[in-house]
């Protein structure tokens, strides 16, 4: 029986006057001291009890499936009484023979397949334990009241020196300082993190003055590389942070820190090969490999790692890497890098037998 049928039957039973106190034990096990019991309360946004509300109960695998398909059959279910409460018994033999379990209680409301609301509360349940599960069903239209990203209150070095990423802080003059490990780019005035746009690493600095309303990109120095053109790239295997300074933290009218919102993410790869990708060339064959690139890849260029004897030739949608080593032989490897816009990757050629 699928979830839709379960909910439909629960409503029919409720309308017929049935009182379902607990229906999580499908196999009908007798009560046991090692059973866990969940006391569930459901209210709305005004605090009014929600009687007749189906509560679906999922184990670990069941909830994973539910996240992909909301019609996944639950392991158990119950319906709240007029006071918005219901007691659910999790039978030991059914739930806990292998130890503690992650149990998720779910309420689903829908008017049609395209309009539905879901509330879920997960708990680690132990044999013999009593759990309290309190649902508050806020049915008001969803309005994102929290901006994207994480909030950080960063106090300057004279007022506690808050560290971000174990090395970034505000100095006494309210500059972001990278402790010789990080660099910064001022993206100018933006409305929030989402407004920063694509990653920029031109004109980066290891110490930068900050001001409210401005956005910043933060990169690890070890992940940056300068190419022969003078352009820089950030390794696609690394991470970078977006920051937005929302406002100063004031004390007696003077700034002592800043409220920053930040998000850490991976660079876009622009269709570049995965970091460390290996291209094999059989010994005796032409010593080159052609690597496809997106036709719209921005500002693409290649360079050998160290003194690797390689040459590069570009076409509209690919680059050909040639081995220019008179002593080329089986087992030799040659590393190189490819940049597209602000990001780069590293790959290597290997001559095989």
Descriptive notes:
- The structure is a single chain.
- The model is unreliable at 8-26 (pLDDT under 50).
- Strands 14, 15, 18, 20, 23 and 24 form a 6-stranded mixed sheet that branches. A 5-stranded antiparallel sheet has the order 8-17-16-13-11, with no helix packed on it.
- The chain contains 3 helices and 24 strands.
- The chain has helices at 3-15, 60-68, 92-95; strands at residues 36-44, 54-58, 76-79, 85-90, 101-112, 115-125, 130-137, 150-155, 169-170, 175-177, 182-189, 207-209, 214-220, 224-226, 232-235, 240-251, 254-265, 277-282, 288-292, 301-304, 310-314, 318-323, 333-340, 343-352.
- The two termini are 59 Å apart.
- The protein is extended, with a radius of gyration of 30 Å.
- The protein has 353 residues and is mostly beta strands.
Short description:
The protein is mainly beta and 353 residues long. It has helices at 3-15, 60-68, 92-95, and strands at residues 36-44, 54-58, 76-79, 85-90, 101-112, 115-125, 130-137, 150-155, 169-170, 175-177, 182-189, 207-209, 214-220, 224-226, 232-235, 240-251, 254-265, 277-282, 288-292, 301-304, 310-314, 318-323, 333-340, 343-352.
Keywords, separated by commas or semicolons:
353 residues; mainly beta; 6-stranded mixed sheet; 3 helices
Average pLDDT, all residues: 88
Tell me the number of helical segments per DSSP (H or I, 4 or more residues long): 3
Share in β-strands: over 45%
Terminal residue distance: 59 Å
Oligomeric form: single chain
What does the overall shape look like?
extended
Radius of gyration: 30 Å
